[in-house]
# Entry
Amino acid sequence: MAVEARTKYETVIGIEVHAQLRTDSKMFCGCPTAPPDGGTDEPNTRVCPICLGLPGTLPVINRRAVELVMLTGLALNCHVETDAVRFERKNYFYPDLPKGYQISQYALPLTSNGRLVVNVPSEGAEVTIGITRAHLEEDTARMQHAGRGYSVVDFNRAGVPLMEIVTEPDLRSPAQARAYGETLRELLRAIGASNADMEAGSMRIEGNVSVRPAGSTTFGTKVEVKNLNSFRSLERAMAYEVERHVAALEVGEALTQETRGWDEEAGRTIVQRSKEEANDYRYFPEPDLPPLRPSDAWVAELRDRLPELPAQRRTRYTDELGLSPYDAGVLTADVALADYFDAVVAAGVTPKAAANWISGELSRLLNQHAAEGLRADAVALRPDGLAELIGEVEAGRVSSINAKAVLATAFESGESPRAIIEREGLGAVSDAGAIGAEIEAVLAEFPSQVAEYRDGKQQLFGFLVGQVMKRTAGRADAKLVNEELRRRLD
# Structure
């Protein structure tokens, strides 16, 4: 599509996020939210009359779920309601909703009117996104289409506590939508409200998108896109819809308010149904639950329990520890990684050295175990062990090359890096005579490269250093190698 056509219109996006809360039991009953450790999640085993929606049952509010939503609201600078919070019935029929309604909140939610400041790297700017509300509700069951005209339903998920976070229509590009999702996930993990794992389904995103003529204050026709299971899909789906809307408006085609699904493989959205409005759900107060009135003291206690948030941590890393914005961003993207970094620094390692090793080699090893969900807080090598290894490198007792091999072993076993170095004979060679002999051998083996270096091809110095390190199996003291090689060359 021509750039001129795009610039004639303004994109308007609002985001709805459903995050499964980190509670042991379901929202309105005592059934567990997950199978026992090491157990398999057999269908329809974590159920009771309440979460099955049987007649005559009464729900009881999960206090922990209420706390986590209020904690999230405080982190999002929301107003936390203390006068009266009301649960409501949201009426619609789905086969995976056995009661025929969902217990949710609408008119009087737990928290509302907040904001989240989001950095959008691709646009080189920060944007402030208004938060309409963060409220509580229960999840539906899981339905799978089995083919041949029938489906099967697993009620283990029915009644699991969900937090819905709804933004104002403040986002103006697909890149902002993606950055908002990533920033919100960081925050939810930092405060312990949700695992926010999109691949596992504990965080689900829906995007509401429309376009309007540039300068207009009237909203265009809104389309909701569901089935977004990654931030990349969110950005791509929003971009696709913007293109589709602009193309339709350019030729005078009417747009329909509807719900669409995202086909990742085809890279396009697909119509699912006409979009419901709030009155279609026929909200009315839940008669089996009294209004909830959180006390001011409870809210104050939760405010005091708020940890250092990712944005605050990034500021501390750049302003107090001298890290680059990039390093600070990498570390704070995962609260477990940031905690690990802080512990390494507390063990006496300089912040820059700790950041280099953690965002480099340690993150590479973690990525190799990404499918298992391994995070820094579960790595066998504890922060004091990594601090020990970095100390050995900086003292010249092991080369950087061999230190990486030591880290790979210690990462799995948790063994002392110093013990591994000694057992495997990986200590650095710092004998000047031995290093000088290896340098002479390399200079003799590569005379053309030596001549080119002396003629001004400075990048060959790294090649020659590498050859010396190769001859010493990576054990030579790199600092001595650099100093002695440069002296003999120059």
Remarks:
- The chain has 16 helices and 14 strands.
- The CA atoms of residues 15 and 207 lie 5 Å apart.
- The mean pLDDT is 90.
- The longest strand covers residues 125-138.
